[in-house]
Every structure is written in structure tokens, then in C-alpha cells.
């Protein structure tokens, strides 16, 4: 009580307040296609797209921007030097993709600083280990494990804050709709006393949103959630990019002529209203015959923006804006 009163009575200049806020909640430069908006702690960003459309790669590149330091031994990396928590619901995350991408970033920044090509296998291993220690990973195999993880996260995040010396800045979920069909099959009847809620897709989604909200109150973070896309007016199936096609199948509408299928959100309304930003990834039309990599287009659905970026994933596993 005494500390609270002393905190209220202390005078603080605008300069001191701004410095404190920027230290506690620093801004981060996000990689394309998330660079268009100034995202900050408390935002819930949904990255929607078919499989594959580089959703997990976007999460990896964003993680690297967060775990890298701003500067290390005279080399500028432009990172936050803050931990990231990655919750894998698809259970397909490949840590080698993260480590290889991080190695390339470290090596590339050193080459720019020194002006020499160097050996691709040479990189600062001390920096690499320090960055990887800031990447926190957990895996869940069903919604109930996910809920249990969310409820125990406050304790884990507090322990990591004491260990790392800084709070976790980003919470990443890949992918939020992984258990949709299993949850949809839950029985709509209570199991126990009359005070317990019935198990259903809606109540499970409400519990997830409530747990994330409680978590953000104690540990403010930027939330990035990937989600597979469903397209079509009345269909519930997901149109995905196949290796043989590399583009969506066009859907002929009554108005005549092939058009891209419209995006259809299948998540419960409680989750849809919880999301503050949503970006949609699509396969790009008009690919060149000489183009060796599939290209993707972005569309900001929430908030609706006129900005649209086109990018590819090169041989090094990096996002390249065209």
C-alpha cells in the first residue's frame, strides 16, 4: 500500500514517462507482410491463408526480429532482444527452420558490417545460443492441453522474466484452428453438476479467449495467431494449394466468369471479435512462366486497407517482397 501511494505521488516529466513506456513496451520492426501497420503489445493479429502460404515462416521471421539484439559487438541487427513464446498446435514445427533462418540473419548482418563475403558456415555461435534461449516452445495435442497450458503460462512467464531479465514480448499460436473439427464434435451436454458449462465449440472458444485475456492483463504481449483459410460462399471445406497446382482453383459464380473464392471465417464469433487485426494470404495470379518460386498476395481484412504486397519464399527460406 505504501509503495502504491509513493508511486502515485511521484512527479514524472513527459520525457521520463515516454522513456519508461518505450522501455517497457518497445516498438518492433516486423518483417513483410506485417510491416504495413504499427502493431503493439495488446494487439491480436490473425494471419490467415491456405497451406502452404508461408504462415509459419512469417511467424519464424517475426520471432527472429524479436529475439535478436539491437546491436552485438558493433554489428547492428535491429532486434528487440526479448523472448518469444511459440505455442505449436499443428505439431509440425521444425526447429531446424528457425535455427537455419537465424544463422542466415546473423551471418548476413555481419557481412553487411564487414563488407566481406565470408564463409556461410561461420557465424557468431555465442549470439546464436543467446537468441535461441529466448525462443520458448510448447506443443499441445488437443484443446484441453491448450487450455491447461494457457492457465499455467503466468507462472512460467514470470519464471522466464526472472531468468531472462526481460518479459516475453510475443505470443505465437500456430494454428488457432487446429482443433476446430475435434471441438465441433464435442457433446453439447454437461458432465457433472448443473453449475458446469456444457462442452461445445462455443464454450471452448470462450474459455480460450478468456484465458488469453487474463494472461495479457498480467503479461502484456503481442499475439500472432496463424489460421488455415476456408474459402467459398456456402462450403465449409478448405481450398489449399497443392504442389502440383501452386494456385487456387477458380470458382465460377452466377455473375459469370471465374473469380477468386471469397474468404469465409469458420471460427466462433467470440474469437472473431477478439481479433484486432487480420491479414489474408492468397496465391498470386499471373505468375511468370520463368518464375521458379510460388508467389503470394496479401490483403488486410481488419482493418481494411488498400495496401497489397506480393512476396515469394526464396531458396534460403526468406520472404522476399516483389
TrEMBL record:
Q: Which residues form the RecA family profile domain?
A: 20-240
Q: Name one GO biological process term.
A: double-strand break repair via homologous recombination
| Stretches assigned to coiled coil | none
Q: Which SUPFAM superfamilies match?
A: P-loop containing nucleoside triphosphate hydrolases
What GO molecular-function term can you cite, just one? Answer: DNA binding
GO CC annotations on file? Rad51B-Rad51C-Rad51D-XRCC2 complex; replication fork
The record's PANTHER family line, in alphabetical order, gives:
DNA REPAIR PROTEIN XRCC2 (PTHR46644)
What name does the UniProt record give this protein? DNA repair protein XRCC2 homolog
